[in-house]
Specification:
Largest sheet: 4 strands, parallel
Distance between the termini: 46 Å
Radius of gyration: 18 Å
CATH class: Alpha Beta
CATH topology: Rossmann fold
Bound molecules: zinc ion
CATH superfamily: Creatininase
Order of helices and strands: HEHEHEHEHHHEHEH
Shape: globular
Length: about 250
């Protein structure tokens, strides 16, 4: 039996899911320019791929929800093909999906996010969802596993070395490396204002997309899937804290 929520019948759900499977993954992304070389759906394709690998490993224990494909991306909305929805809409949408799944016995929900601009809205959605008896984890793969990723790539970035490498593994048919670019400008602060985005996101890129390779992408995908498996095991064994001596 597939563990994609939308491929089950209501009869499957009653007989095989309710009371047995308590963990679901919600992939969340964005439709936006990714350099001149990666597809507009990059932020959807990467989380969907990670989720698909997990579905193969934990077929009896997790469900994959239909993804939330539209995100909050005002900074990139000037680029042809980008589609941004407001943060409040995204928050409300994810919140209601989260509250909905709890009703069907999900008590571990993973928001597997592919887009940085979504983070604020998702944080707020999480606070609302956990009014119900459920644990919600947000994973931003390029941030949460940054230290490990930087053992594989020299840098990271939007349509940069790490994300482009992942796309060369996940959906090589949609990547056009001949149009990849390097943006040398990195802001010193978390800052917005006139002209800032143009520079920060020159060519809709941060970092260096040119140095991406499929081999690096394979390593990153392997690492992320392994880390997500660790997360699942820790949720199930309630091993969610580590001790620290230095604050
Ligand atoms: Zn992206």
């Amino acid at each position: 039996m597939s563990m994609y929520w939308d491929q089950l019948t209501t009869k499957n759900f009653l007989e095989e899911i309710v009371g047995r499977v308590d963990t679901a993954i919600l992939p969340i992304g964005s439709i936006e320019a990714h350099g001149q070389h990666c597809p507009l759906g990059t932020d959807n394709m990467a989380p969907a791929y990670f989720a698909a690998q997990l579905e193969k490993i934990y077929r009896d224990r997790i469900l994959i929800l239909p993804p939330v494909a539209y995100g909050y991306t005002p900074d990139l909305s000037v680029w042809p093909g980008s589609l941004s929805i407001s943060a409040s809409v995204l928050q409300q949408y994810v919140q209601e999906i989260g509250q909905g799944v709890v009703k069907w016995g999900i008590n571990n929900l993973i928001l597997l996010n592919g887009h940085g601009g979504n983070i604020g809205a998702l944080q707020a959605a999480m606070d609302a969802i956990v009014q119900e008896p459920v644990r919600v984890v947000m994973i931003n793969w390029w941030l949460d596993y940054s230290t490990q990723i930087l053992t594989i790539t020299r840098g990271q970035g939007h349509a940069g070395e790490d994300e482009t490498s992942v796309m060369l593994k996940v959906a090589p048919e949609w990547v056009h490396m001949e149009h990849a670019s390097f943006n040398p400008f990195r802001p010193r602060y978390r800052i917005k204002g006139p002209g800032i985005s143009d520079k920060r996101l020159r060519n809709a890129t941060t970092g260096d997309g040119r140095s991406a390779t499929k081999e690096k992408g394979e390593k990153i995908v392997e690492l992320i899937v392994k880390e997500l498996a660790v997360l699942l095991e820790r949720l199930w064994s309630d091993d969610l804290f580590e001790r620290t001596d230095n604050g």
